[in-house]
Write a structure and sequence with these properties.
The structure is a single chain. This protein has 213 residues and is mostly helical. The chain has one domain. Helices cover 65% and strands 0% of the residues. It is globular. This is C6 zinc finger protein.
Length: 213
């Protein structure tokens, strides 16, 4: 199991065999790809043209994200020390990472089956975590990412209910998170075929969306 320097220095050896990072509550393997995704996302916001190097980086990132999940699946076949709730958060984060990659890097419409399946997966994984669990704090981010791309009314309702019902995260202001989602749904429903980049270029309606995600 790969461990980062701060884990070796600051954390108990009890976490050595965990699949997830003890602070981030998701896979160690996802940390680097998420950072790379952030850099690519900055480029997509600044320029509509993609040089060959950026296309190659996006293709490599897609493969890395898929390999990260495969590695965690393989690790799950061995002795597992992570708690069940943390593993559900990790599954949700993997799905949220794919949602972000395909909608924000590859500019895939949020109505496509691939996005809808991963949105459903985030909601389903969150449903396994009790609102009283400490992991409720960690599930808010993937729920918000999934909520931004949710199409089906029932899924939106379940995501909103789960966010509002989360304990131990009052500082995250769940009601404000749901309010942002409601605004996003209202705006996006007006033109559901538009991609995330097309929405982002329209400016004001999605300013909160950009800042929050």
């Amino acid at each position: 199991m790969v461990m980062y320097e701060e884990e070796v220095t600051n954390f108990s050896d009890d976490f050595r065999d965990w699949i997830t990072h003890p602070i981030y509550t998701f896979s160690r393997h996802l940390i680097s790809p998420l950072l790379r995704m952030g850099r690519l996302l900055q480029h997509t916001r600044q320029s509509m043209s993609w040089p060959d190097q950026m296309k190659a980086e996006a293709a490599a990132l897609e493969e890395e994200l898929l390999q990260c999940y495969d590695r965690d699946v393989e690790a799950n076949r061995g002795p597992i020390k992570d708690t069940a709730d943390v593993l559900h958060v990790n599954e949700a984060m993997h799905a949220a990472a794919l949602i972000m990659f395909y909608t924000r890097i590859m500019d895939m419409p949020f109505t496509t089956p691939l996005i809808r399946r991963n949105v459903d997966k985030v909601q389903r994984e969150a449903s396994f975590i009790a609102p009283s669990s400490l992991s409720s704090r960690a599930i808010i981010f993937p729920l918000f990412i999934a909520g931004c791309e949710a199409v089906d009314g029932r899924v939106r309702e379940l995501i909103a209910q789960r966010i509002l019902g989360s304990n131990y995260c009052s500082e995250l202001e769940p009601s404000k998170v749901v309010s942002h989602l409601s605004q996003i749904w209202s705006v996006r429903d007006q033109s559901p075929g538009l991609t995330w980049l097309e929405w982002s270029q329209q400016g004001n309606p999605l300013e909160d969306y950009h800042r929050s995600s």
